[in-house]
Amino acid sequence: MIFDYNVIWEALPLYLGGLVTTLKLLALSLFFGLLCALPLGLMRVSKNAVVNMSAWLFTYVIRGTPMLVQLFLIYYGLAQFEAVRESFLWPWLSSATFCACLAFAINTSAYTAEIIAGSLRATPNGEIEAARAMGMSRVKMYKRILLPSALRRALPQYSNEVIMMLQTTSLASIVTLIDITGAARTVNAQFYLPFEAYITAGVFYLCLTFILVKLFKMAERRWLGYLAPRKH
């Protein structure tokens, strides 16, 4: 078998367009997912049982159901209801891009919330006692001490979540979006060359993963360097 480079070269603009779509989906999903995850993470460490259980129920349901099912429920399921189709939200909910971003953001918010909650629980008691000794209020303590410290410690786990979300964006091709995987499906449908089409898509994902890993390693050295063992 000979790898047909000519077909891939001809389809390169399609793959590059898919790359832009993938990066857009990833960036928007992570941004809005993190915005939702911050309050959810705080709710998960709340001593108020109602607040804590509400956040736990959300994260349990989202993490306990497949991403594909969530995407189908938002993109196909909501369109079943006439009230939704006649509402002011329909111009957005009828958009595949919006529905994909919404589904991905909801999904990553649940996982990220648990990462943040775990980092908050792992905060050394010394940091909390030092903040109290300085007379900080609870809000100021979270703002100045606990959240910045927890977010730094969460970087290694969050990097895994970002990489998983990169792979998850490939599901967007199922709802008609032409991302990297969608480009591969189009090439395969046109030329009947699945090996070339999907190997090329895999190379794109591998390159993106490599870049993300390097960026997070740099971030960890920058913000977690003080936790590294000291060299004598």
Task: Explain what the structure shows.
With about 230 residues, the protein is mostly helical. Among the domains are: about 120 residues, MetI-like fold (Orthogonal Bundle); about 40 residues. Helices cover about 80% and strands about 0% of the residues. The protein is built from eleven helices and no strands. Helix 1 crosses helix 11, helix 3 packs across helix 6 and helix 6 packs antiparallel against helix 9.
Short description:
Pfam families: BPD_transp_1 (PF00528). By secondary structure, the chain is mainly alpha-helical.
Sum up the structure in keywords.
flat, MetI-like fold, 232 residues, 11 helices, mainly alpha
Number of strands: 0
| Structural class category | mainly alpha
Q: Which fold name fills CATH's third level, the topology of the domain at 33-123 and 151-177?
A: MetI-like fold
Tally of DSSP helical segments: 11
Pfam families: BPD_transp_1 (PF00528)
Organism: Pseudomonas fluorescens
GO biological process, one term: amino acid transport
Keywords: Amino-acid transport, Cell membrane, Membrane, Transmembrane, Transmembrane helix, Transport
SSE map:
Layout: H1 5-44, H2 49-63, H3 67-77, H4 82-85, H5 90-93, H6 96-121, H7 125-133, H8 138-153, H9 155-168, H10 180-191, H11 194-223
